[in-house]
Amino acid sequence: MRIKKLLVLVIFLSFFCTGCASLSSSSSLYRTGAKYLQGEDPVFAVAYLDAFLKAQPNSPYAPNAAFALGEFYFDNNDYFNSMRMFSDYIRNFPRHRGVIFAKLIIYKVLTDVKNNETNLTSEEEALIKEIRKELFSQPLFLMFYDKKAPRRYKSLDRNTYLVYDYVDKIKVFRNDKVFLELSP
User: Fold this and answer.
1) What are the structural domains of the chain?
2) Nearest-angstrom CA–CA distance, 68 and 55
3) Least buried of 48, 51, 126, 131, by fewest C-beta within 10 Å?
4) If you average pLDDT over residues 149-168, what whole number do you get?
């Protein structure tokens, strides 16, 4: 009886250690990617964060990694991959605190960048209307306030986003500079 218990304990510990080793190796991808991202070597950061997302798509750190990749593509004028990454981010992590900022970045790409280069498709125009509807659909009692509490988000890339929601407009700041201003 004692030998059986010892054997079960040994098997359990071996499976537990194997599981922890695989988990720590993928989380090291995230830590290394974050280190490279904050150390001004974003090319390596993208490789590590992308590998991390493929290895651990359900990790609690996956939303941060996905948002950081979308930001990297946006900052480097790769708008196609930025929109793809942010769309995946919104679909996979709809309740994450950065979703509104991902939508605003997509909105900026569609209205400022893409609209100047080419005509928008009907799907892109529908997406713009959907984002505007979401931003400006507020309960009536909130309309009487001049300024509500700001919403903020700090990304893995250390960019700080801040939204001030006024009665007549929405201002979005990125790193203390106006990023986007919307009126109904």
Assistant:
1) 25-182 (1.25.40.10)
2) 17
3) 126
4) 81
Gap between the Cα atoms of 15 and 18, Å rounded: 5
Q: Where are the alpha helices (DSSP H) in the chain?
A: 2-38, 42-55, 62-75, 79-92, 99-108, 115-117, 122-136
Q: Give me the helix-helix angle, 99-108 and 62-75, nearest 10°.
A: 20
In sequence order, the 6+-apart residues with CB closer than 8 A to the CB of 108 are 179, 180
- Token digits for 145? 């306030």
Which is higher by pLDDT, 59 or 163? 59
Q: Given this model, what pLDDT does residue 18 score?
A: 40
Place of tokens 């030998």: 3
Q: How confident is the model over 63-91, as a mean pLDDT?
A: 92
Residues in the chain: 184
Please give the helix or strand (H or E) that residue 166 lies within, else none: none
In angstroms, the CA 34 to CA 129 distance is 34
Q: How many angstroms separate the Cα of 65 from the Cα of each of 24, 46, 92, 138?
A: 16, 9, 12, 30
Q: What are phi and psi of 96, to 5 degrees?
A: -70, 150
| Residue 165 DSSP SS3 | strand
Q: State both tokens at 59.
A: 């990790």
The verdict on pTM exceeding 0.90 is: no
